[in-house]
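Input sequence (206 aa), recorded before submission:
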Amino acid sequence: MSRKRKVKTGSWPLLIALGCALSLIPDGALAHSGTGLPGGFPSGFRHPLSGPDHLLAMVSVGLWGAFLGRPLIYLLPVIFPMVMAVGAVLAMVGLRLPAPEVGIALSVLILGGCIALAIKAQIWAASAVVAVFALFHGYAHGKELPSAADPIAYSAGFVLATGFLHVLGIGAGALKAYRGGLLATRFAGGCIAASGLWFLAAAIAP
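Predicted structure, token format:
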């Protein structure tokens, strides 16, 4: 009888602890791009596609959800935009979230790492990881939102683009069902994590 391949499950608590610790670093000099937003829906739709850190994080949410399977393949892409909205509201009312750029960089690093290491987190744990990072992404965009010419249309475009990136990640994750697909998926996660490490270095640089 063939032995089933065991999937790593013990690394996610360490990754979450690392993320929480590094998130306490004071704001660095790296400013989020895109302030002074000129337009409505087109500008909002383009914005997630133009920032590599946001793009990779949002694709990773769909990719990790596809790797984890039901119900997380549906749940994670719903949690992310919902908590993003909460983060945006926190920014618009003037509440301070420590080191948002570090949190965004960590989201790329840790989500990519979860994919690369084939981490099969429980539902509550995966949801918590995605929710924490969505808060940072929403906060960064919420600080920019009041400068948009049409904030409502901008928000609609941004949410639609976010959903598109989640679906793109889910589609990429479907490759794991094919021969060599799981290896390709984990390799992609490793590349994403490496990008996140670069973003993190830039975020904490003096």
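Checked by second reader. The helical segments are 12-22, 41-50, 52-68, 72-92, 100-116, 123-144, 151-173, 181-204.
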